[in-house]
Amino acid sequence: MLALTYTFPDSAITVFDAWLNKPVAELWLFKNDTNDLQFKADGDGFFIEEHDGDKQIDHWGKYLKIERPHTLQFTLEVPAHFEGVSEVTLHIRETPAGTQLEFTQKHIDTSKTADAWRMMIGRLMTARMRPRRRASSHNAGRIQSSPAVAEYPSLKTR
Questions:
Q1: Helix or strand or coil: residue 80?
Q2: What are phi and psi of 125, to 5 degrees?
Q3: Lowest pLDDT segment from 17-21, 99-103, 150-154
Q4: What's CA 34's distance to the chain center, in Å?
Q5: Is the dihedral angle over the CA atoms 83, 78, 99, 148 positive or is it negative?
Q6: Of all helices (H) and strands (E), which one includes residue 88?
Q7: What are the structural domains, with CATH classification, of the chain?
Q8: What is the pLDDT of residues 6-18, one digit of tens each?
Q9: Is the peptide bond before 9 cis (omega within 30 degrees of 0)?
Q10: Whole-structure pTM over 0.70, yes or no?
Q11: Are 24 and 151 in contact (CB under 8 A)?
């Protein structure tokens, strides 16, 4: 099992939505300096097509639990990177020091995924510092929170 903990200076809603809001997720989730991503999601699951040079790497999974802004749980399969079906769970809570993200991945050999998750969550930490196109001077430099249900109308709390 892989367990990681990070603290963000953003609200729990902003951290939660960064996983489901397509424009924000495209900045960091499965992103590297050379790839292009296409995200597709509905209330049951997601599919991400990654193109990196000549390679196409598919990522997909099913949402198991969506309790905004505290818990997100989903399966994840990426046959190009690991065998089997993993389960990813995010627990998000606000603390006096900031919003704490507790990330776990299990049911696979996480030695194959640990560095990638550390890199991606590190990208999330820096993505929040990039100004968004419609950002006003008041909120420039922060990821703008937008409800996951607005991006994916069929997402439902399970």
A1: coil
A2: -60, -40
A3: 150-154
A4: 19
A5: negative
A6: strand 86-95
A7: 2-32+63-151 (3.30.530.20)
A8: 999 999 999 999 9
A9: no
A10: yes
A11: no
